[in-house]
Amino acid sequence: MAPAASENDKAFMQGALSLAARGLGDVWPNPAVGCVIVKDGVIVGRGWTQSGGRPHGETEALRRAGEAAKGADVFVTLEPCSHHGKTPPCSEALISAGVARVVAATIDSNPKVSGAGLKNLQDAGIKVETGLCETEARKLNAGFFLSVEQKRPLFTLKCASTLDGRIALKSGESKWITGEAARGAAHVLRSRFDAILVGSGTVLADDPELTCRMPGYAGRPKVRLVLDRRGRTPEIAKIIATARDIPTWIITVKGADCAHLAAKGAEIITVEAGKNDAEFAANAARELTNRGLTRVMIEGGGTVAAAFLGADLVDEIAWFRAPGVIGGDGTPVLGNLNLGKIADMARFKARDSLVFGADMLDFLDRAPR
């Protein structure tokens, strides 16, 4: 465990965390790791996990530091890996570079690592410290830790509604409730997730592309996920027309006719239906982790949102609100939750609020039970 950290050490680790955040949504199934290498108080190398998960952050920082890494201090947001995968272990790379000290924000709970990387470093005579900015590091890689520890990705529910929680008129008209600035911010949000999830009803009603159209985005295309128990997704949908170029996964149940979608390039994933929508959502969540996803944004519709809330799988909410009202005959943002008492209500705590033009964006985290 680390001794009391100096202000300089904290600043270097915070810099590593900022670098790590660059990889969010683009490095799955790997965690997003940042690394800063410091020699005589001067930063000589920076790195972060690259697109697709490789090279790792430590490898990138070492490459940039070169010979200056010898005798240096290394600040890394996650324990360096110790196992041979598609790349050699980062702990071995640090040993070979001759670094003097490694400060890791938190231990990697992956059973393939779980302290072994730090032990490798200590056995080689490198000073090791852990725990600096651990809360921030675990928060940043919450999706990775959830996938390892709870066998599910992190789920963020993104909503865009009026002040009274409506997403469309009675007629079905919905474009556009929020303004251009808020819609641009939604694409920035998409850039930080591995996948975007909707239900077949949203595909039928809106025919969305479910792509990240943030100016300058050059990362991997987002995996497009459709919950479709009845095989309702049409062949002419935009996401099916581009399924050979952009990963498109249709999550369904045994017996649903989706062969025509597979023929167009979509991947068909079959899970157990369960007794209700919430159980179907939970089964889908486990399968998404099996396939490497760590961060998923739920974008609609109301039935899907209610299913994940009912399964207690929503970790945070990003709620865009337009300053207008539609009324009770409009389409609600959430489907039925069938709660028996107020104590059963899912609760969230406010984290941040932003303004985009006339619209507001509230971020809320799951409240402790």
Describe this structure in words.
There is one protein chain. The protein has 369 residues and is of the alpha/beta class. The chain has helices at 7-21, 57-65, 90-97, 116-123, 134-140, 142-149, 180-190, 200-206, 238-241, 259-262, 277-290, 302-310, and strands at 34-39, 42-48, 73-76, 101-104, 127-130, 154-162, 166-168, 195-199, 223-227, 248-252, 267-270, 295-300, 316-322, 331-332, 348-356, 359-366. Strands 11-10-9-8-12-6-13-16-15 form a nine-stranded mixed beta sheet, sandwiched between helices. Strand 15 (348-356) and strand 16 (359-366) form a beta hairpin. Helix 3 packs parallel to helix 4 (116-123) and helix 11 (277-290) packs across helix 12 (302-310). The radius of gyration is 22 Å and the shape is globular.
Properties at a glance:
nine-stranded mixed sheet; five-stranded mixed sheet; globular; 16 strands; 28% helix; 24% strand; 369 residues; alpha/beta
Average pLDDT, rounded to a whole number, is: 94
Largest sheet strand order: 11-10-9-8-12-6-13-16-15
Low-pLDDT runs? none
Indicate the structural class: alpha/beta
The biggest beta sheet is recorded as: 9 strands, mixed
Total strands: the figure is 16
Q: Can you count the helices?
A: 12
Question: In which range does the helix fraction lie?
Answer: 25-40%
Q: First CA to last CA: what distance? A: 30 Å
What's this, in brief?
The protein has helices at 7-21, 57-65, 90-97, 116-123, 134-140, 142-149, 180-190, 200-206, 238-241, 259-262, 277-290, 302-310, and strands at residues 34-39, 42-48, 73-76, 101-104, 127-130, 154-162, 166-168, 195-199, 223-227, 248-252, 267-270, 295-300, 316-322, 331-332, 348-356, 359-366. With 369 residues, the chain is an alpha/beta fold.
